[in-house]
Amino acid sequence: MPTKIAVIQKPPVLLDRDKTIAQAVGLINEAANAGAVLLVFPEAYIPGYPAWIWRLKPGGDMALSSDLHAQLRLNAVDLNREGLLPLQEAARKHAVTVVIGLNEIDSRFSGTTLFNTVVVIGPDGALLNRHRKLMPTNPERMVWGMGDATGLRVVETPAGRLGALICWESYMPLARYALYAQNLEIFVNPTWDNGEACHVTLRHIAREAGCWVIGTATALQGCDLSEDFPERDRLYKPDEWINDGDAVVVNPKGEIIAGPLHREKGILYAEIDVEAARRARRSLDVCGHYSRPDIFSLSVNRKPLQPAEFSD
Length: 312
Description:
Elements: E1 3-8, H1 17-33, E2 38-40, H2 62-74, H3 85-94, E3 97-105, E4 114-121, E5 127-132, E6 155-157, E7 160-164, H4 173-180, E8 186-190, H5 196-209, E9 212-216, E10 220-221, H6 232-235, E11 241-243, E12 245-250, E13 256-262, E14 267-272, H7 274-280
Parallel strand pairs: 1-2, 2-3, 7-8, 8-9
Antiparallel strand pairs: 1-14, 3-4, 4-5, 6-7, 9-12, 10-11, 12-13
Helix pairs in contact: 1-3
């Protein structure tokens, strides 16, 4: 039976966690009222992707970089302190599944290092999974620490068996395969990437895995940044597109069936049917009849890699 999904690429309130969460709750209400049962937000949506790292030269304006990073840290989400409770309540209210990217801070240990994280919230409001980006890309490593494989999991949702990799993790073949090997039916790629090259990758994954693929970045212009954003006018012009968005939905044949939602601050709706994923693997099942475990093997360490263990 077809399932209606919503791919959201409206911009967040950059560097403001509480306002962004409130806006996300409103978007959940809007999409749920339109009949969607699976809602996907972009990478690092709360409180926004640190786009300035691609504009500032590494080691250039250290004072500005430090100020921006401090604001990002102060507005990061602490899952140990129920930082997503309003979203969990909204998901439970509408009985929808929500996939959303966020900047996460872990108060249990250093309380300072940030992680690029995607979480899956179930229709009962429970956190079904938390995945931290395994390898931040290029200048992202000045913002986020490396995640472990604890969240490299596929979870059961009413829309189908769902797994997520963040942005350029989609180029990590072993990470992809780790999800494929868990009967993946829906692959979600919250990203900052966009355009044809990104879509070629997502279409390849759909055919390779025999699954549905959902990808979205944040459609963002300079005018979407608040007036008190540090050095806003120096970094961005009001009418320039910082990110084009380009949300897409790809079927298991590798065909784009919805989008790209190009330079539109809106919601992309589509209908998917997980039975199409199951049928697609009749001819090509890379973790089934098309695998060669007698030749190839993959071992994944999903134990939490914690910086310290305490025995009292």
